[in-house]
Amino acid sequence: MPAEAASSQHRSIARRGIMLVVSSPSGAGKTTLTRNLIEQEKHITLSVSVTTRPRRPSEIDGVHYHFISKRRFDIMRDSAELLEWAEVHGNCYGTPREPVEQALAAGRDVLFDIDWQGTRQLYDAMRDDVVSVFVLPPSAAELKARLERRAEDSDEIIVKRLRNAAEEIAHWPEYDYVLVNRDLDKSFLRLRSILTAERLKRVHRADMESFVEGLLDGLREITA
Ligand SMILES: Nc1nc2c(ncn2[C@@H]2O[C@H](COP(=O)(O)OP(=O)(O)O)[C@@H](O)[C@H]2O)c(=O)[nH]1
Ligand SMILES: Nc1ncnc2c1ncn2[C@@H]1O[C@H](COP(=O)(O)OP(=O)(O)O)[C@@H](O)[C@H]1O
Q: Which pTM value belongs to this model?
């Protein structure tokens, strides 16, 4: 393909949004951080997962998750309606494909609160679009205290989540960024900074080509 044709084809590619993935052991604070980001940042959409886990008292169906039966989950998984899926703490979770593809095609960023297994699947499918952040608790005792303070799960479920925490934490080296969530405000600022920096990366700035062309046209005009 002649260079000119290749460059005009490249110009026609719309900006694709970033897939910002946040993972952590249960209780480290990823839901709090991701909800704050959605509230304060325009142009980012939260991917609402489907899950077979029972709804917690504070959760709203369709907002925090789509709560579905195992039968419905199996149908969605088998008919490729899920972009990725995993079993976590004995329940099934998955990301509906269509809303993500629509948002990305429209140039919107998408935020995912998913585990390491899902992050791997997104990396395998769409490596160039994925930016991943791992959130660690400041200590084991604080992780336990946060799960207890949240007071949404039974003691038995809290113990299960603490037992699974080591397995989730083992995957932190697979992520692009790591946050130790000590102070919530500081962690939030850092998460927001990651998004800002990633948005400014040249590979995510397909819109810059026409801007720079205009700039060069302007320079030619004033130096002619
Ligand atoms: N792979 C995958 N993991 C998910 C999805 N939705 C939630 N998770 C993960 O499942 C785990 C349990 O989530 P949840 O039951 O809401 O408990 P939480 O960890 O206390 O927020 C967390 O690590 C979530 O990030 C999903 O669609 N796909
Ligand atoms: N930096 C922090 N300091 C103190 N408490 C926090 C902090 N971040 C989150 N929390 C609290 O810890 C609990 C667990 O947070 P949550 O966001 O539900 O975690 P996760 O989604 O990772 O399971 C919640 O009660 C939340 O308000």
A: 0.90
